[in-house]
Amino acid sequence: MTNGKRKTLHDFFPGSDVSKKGKSHECGPRNANLRDETSTNIGEEQIIYEETAYRALAKFFCQSGTPPKSVEDMYFRKLIVYLNPKFHPSSAILSRYCLKLYEEERAKVKEILRSLNGRVSLSVERLKYKQSNGFGYCSTSDFRGSFSDFICLTVHFIDEDWKLRSWVVSFRSLDAYGDYVGETIQCLSDFGIEDKICAVTVHSYLDFDEIVDVIKSKLLEKKRLQLDGQFFRVSCNADIFSSMVKKAFGMIEDIINDIRLLVFWGKSLPVWNVTFHKLQEALELEAKGEYLKKDDYKDYDIPSPQEWEKVKGVCKLVGHVYTAAEVLFMEKRPSAGLYFHNLNKLRFNLMKDSVSSDEFARSLANIMLKKFGKYWTHMYLVLALATIMDPRYKVKYLEFCFLKYEGNDLLPLSSILEAIQRLLDDYVVHRSSMEYPMSDSDSDNSDTGEDLISDEFGTSEDLLEPIEVVNDPSFGFDCSDEFSKLIQTTSQPPKSELDCYLEEPIVPWTKNFDVLSWWKAASPRYPVLSKLARDLLSIQLSLVTGYDSYYTDLREPDRDMTSMESDLVNALMSTKSWFDKQRRNAMKAEVQNN
Predict the structure, then answer these.
(1) Compositionally biased, Basic and acidic residues: which spans (predicted)?
(2) 233 - beta bridge partners?
């Protein structure tokens, strides 16, 4: 809406035959709205109209991430003809406008990130280009040809209004990089965030050591690395779940191939939740005696009773993972506390099954527990720190978990509290370094104020007559020594923001609680602690959410994107993320105010 009025198609395509204010006119950028067809301004107005239309199209395509070649689509052309028969958009020209819009928005994003008074977290995701034939999903190994993986760099931060932002700063195929590590560092420098990164989230099964180590060394040089990098590298949670499930399914791979035929289960995308549901379906049919009907399944290999027991054991263990995944990946924005709770629960269930009387289930549970244990040891600190920053959990919940799952062992809690206190101390020091001492001019002004008072009312010597001062420290207050001793024995040092926060009552747990809104309201009470909370809560614990979390392989990029030039792909993927909901609302409000 503009000035209280809803925008119409005419606003995006001037000169169209869409009625405006009850009037209609001939369409076309070359002769629409012209008072005099012989006017010398015809060429100039045509350029203005086409400029406006192209910019409108570029904003639409960038906001939606739609490839400019879509403008050549037959149905899209029909729409354009309806709006303006004289306007014939070219995908090549539209691509240039998209790149131009990207550069304009990039300058704004760089300014926002450079002026950000806080830290950001970075995620590095690799996407693999695959092909599929007419019969279903196929991996790249099934085809001959050139395939290029893509690297997506995304910056995550909580802005001054306590809104979580996730902005893509680079989306390029590996073929487009000359020096992948060097160009990545240059990208972070261009956006002014090379010394603001608090954590990097990467795939848990891919080698990103080089890029993580280079970013960490840059922070170390500038003394901006927190806790000596103890939680700097964050492993993707969805990856560890997929890795555990793949191992479980691999133990009964031949049985799964037989069951695939029994339940008419064809080729599908590489997502493990589908396999899990199909195995459960087969178990339900087996329990009903469906596969005892030999005439119906005489051409199939029916698993033996021992093999069905193995399937049951796998489904039970994978079910523990699936229960946690449903909570963590189907939530719009799962909190660190939800991660901490459900991962603890998963670990506890695997530990119980690791001592099962069933040899197969016991062996598999120990294998899965070993995989999960490495992840848990690595991620434990960052999960605990972020959980404390949720007023529904704080330290009390950690104590509860230690009592429930660790057998009354509270020793790890002291190291966690020590870590968060060290973090807070660093924030206090950094905040103090940002505060400037009083300048000489300020001191001069205060002296000038005293001089003005003296000039008007006379000096203190003029107002006060000399009096005799008794040279006795206790004159008029003869119990000062006793009072001083009392103060020394009873006075308590001032409480820190962390102490005050932890002493506040726990907020009752509700599913739809907005932790960012809570901190926004509480930030005046905790000016330093709130900055620490803002940075910790921006750390991404998984690269993907929703249905994508169940992939057992790397995700695919948008197929339409893979056919475009590298710069255009980067422009569309970046601007699509920059035009997020909050920024679009802010831009809309700005237009309305103007």
Answers:
(1) 18-36
(2) 200
At residue 234, φ and ψ (nearest 5 deg) are -115, 125
CB contact at 8 A, 518 and 525: no
Alpha helices in 296-358 (DSSP H): 305-330, 336-353
The angle formed by the CA atoms of residues 192, 197 and 198, to the nearest 5 degrees, is 160
**Torsion angle defined by CA atoms of residues 410, 416, 421 and 426, in that order, rounded to the nearest 10 degrees:** 170
Q: What is the mean pLDDT of each run of 10 residues along the chain (594 residues)?
A: 45 44 38 39 64 92 91 90 88 96 96 94 89 42 54 95 95 82 93 95 88 93 92 96 96 94 82 95 93 78 94 98 95 89 94 95 97 94 96 93 74 89 90 44 43 41 46 57 66 82 94 93 96 96 93 85 87 93 60 58
> 118: Cβ–Cβ under 8 A, 6 or more apart, which residues?
157, 158, 196, 531, 534, 535
**Predicted pLDDT of residue 444:** 45
- Both tokens assigned to 567: 């710069």
3-state secondary structure of 121: strand
What span, in angstroms and rounded, lies between the C-alpha atoms of 25 and 13?
13
Nearest to 379 by CA among 540, 231, 243, 199: 231
Distance CA 438, CA 501 (A): 31
Residue 545 pairs in a beta bridge with: none
* DSSP assignment string, 435-464: SPPPPHHHHHHHHHHHHHHHHHH--HHHHS
DSSP summary character for residue 2? B
Provide the Cα torsion 120, 121, 123, 124; round to 10°: 80
Q: How far apart are CA 284 and CA 278, in angstroms?
A: 10
Nearest to 79 by CA among 6, 29, 9: 9
Strands 150-158 and 136-137: unpaired
Q: Is the dihedral of CA 299, 303, 305, 308 positive or negative?
A: negative
Model-wide pTM > 0.70: yes
- Distance of alpha carbon 313 from alpha carbon 368, whole angstroms: 13
Neighbours of 572 (CB within 10 A): 28
For 575-588, give one letter per residue: b (16+ CB within 10 A) or e. bbbbbbeebeeeee
